[in-house]
Design goal:
By secondary structure, this protein is mainly β. Helices cover 11% and strands 36% of the residues. A seven-stranded mixed beta sheet has the order 1-2-3-4-5-6-7, sandwiched between helices. A three-stranded antiparallel beta sheet has the order 10-11-12, with no helix packed on it. Strands 8-9 form a two-stranded antiparallel sheet.
Length: 187
């Protein structure tokens, strides 16, 4: 199995080039690859596959040639990782698999299409597009999605705000200390 290691803003990734989508990833294989003592070690796996060759990317193949098949180090498939997206795009450019069109490179993810802006040696992920989800445009921070819903306890309802916490969407509903709710589930 061919691999490359990539690092982006404190996260490291095992990059698996698989343009034609022939490599079958399993949760066990991903966890073994990311194991820092017995594997290659990493915060996650980035499989580089053409969108047309991945079940989660085929619907986005008209918008982006490449699909970032991102997996967390525990073996769970994930929608998006901002640091991973920047490493993914840098890999595409350095390996000659892509060249930015007008300094912007679209990449398909499980969260939708992100657009990476390439500025010299830097890569900034500008937005994530997904139905009903707000987009965060920010240099140097992870792209995140969250659908804020009010939280109800008994007869009280609190509004919710979405905040990026590492690469996980976190909805926080402020209220009395004993009833503050934390949810890591989007929507």
């Amino acid at each position: 199995m061919e691999f490359t290691k990539g690092h982006g803003t404190g996260n490291d990734f095992v990059i698996l080039p698989d343009p034609d989508g022939t490599l079958e990833l399993t949760p066990g294989l991903v966890a073994a690859l990311c194991d820092r003592r017995r594997g290659i070690g990493g915060d996650g796996v980035l499989r580089v596959v053409r969108a047309a060759h991945h079940a989660d990317g085929v619907a986005l193949a008209d918008e982006a040639e490449w699909f970032m098949d991102y997996w967390n180090s525990d073996g769970s498939a994930a929608e998006m990782c901002g640091n991973g997206a920047r490493v993914f795009v840098r890999y595409l450019l350095e390996s000659g698999l892509a060249a930015p069109s007008g300094a912007v490179l679209p990449v398909a993810t499980r969260a939708g299409v992100v657009r990476a802006r390439v500025e010299g040696e830097g890569v900034a992920v500008e937005d994530a597009v997904g139905p009903g989800w707000p987009a965060l445009r920010s240099r140097g921070s992870a792209v995140w999605r969250c659908r804020a819903r009010p939280s109800t306890s008994g007869t009280r309802t609190w509004s919710a705000r979405c905040r990026p916490v590492w690469n996980c969407p976190l909805s926080i509903s402020p209220g009395p200390r004993s009833s503050t709710r934390w949810s890591s589930r989007p929507g």
